[in-house]
Amino acid sequence: MSDKENLEEHKEKQKKQSIFDKHQKEKFENIINPIDADKTAKNPGLLPYAHTVGGAIIIPTEKGIMKSKALAAMEQQTEMQLNQIKEQIDLLAKQAKEIQSRTQISMEIYNADMGFEPLVNHNYFLYERTKTGEKVLSMIAPDQWGRSSKLHFMAEVQLLADRTWKVIRENSEDSIDI
């Protein structure tokens, strides 16, 4: 006997040994499920909760709770540290802008006409000549000039120890020429 003949013989035996006869099979095939299809799960074994009244109760384990708390704490800590770094970056950017500003005003002052040697931590006054636009550094404050001055007050500045200049106050736009 060949394998093919054995296989066919085996199939015939299975048909004869069927649990249900034709009549019973027809009964089961014609059954209509009374439960609404929208209220049933296609794969109930994959649901994260019990899908029947008698189903097993699913309770989070202590391990799951511990992981959840650890993750929440980690996220909070990470967010706090990232915010600290952002604040530090903002502070460094602000300091860099201040240094650039001091460098720029220092270049203007060192290119200005200066008839004296400025001292560290002393305040001086930067003016602009109205006719030529040339900058002038002076020890005389704007309110100490007489009426005959041809200078426009720009800023009060202070010489710092690193030989850069810091602006103490700038001329507001509504200020009067002296």
Note the run of SSEs as H and E.
Answer: HHHEEEEE
Strand order of the largest sheet: 1-3-2-4-5
Helix content: 25-40%
How many extended strands?
5
Number of helices: 3
Q: What number is the mean pLDDT?
A: 81
Report the span from N to C terminus.
125 Å
The general outline is rod-shaped
Based on secondary structure, the structural category is: alpha+beta
Rg over CA atoms, rounded to whole Å, is: 45 Å
Largest sheet composition: 5 strands, mixed
Low-confidence stretches: 174-178
Describe what this molecule looks like in 3D.
The chain has helices at 3-16, 22-29, 62-110; strands at 113-114, 123-129, 135-138, 151-159, 165-170. The chain has a five-stranded mixed β-sheet with strand order 1-3-2-4-5, covered by helices on one side. Helix content is 40%, strand content 16%. The protein is rod-shaped. It is of the alpha+beta class and 178 residues long.
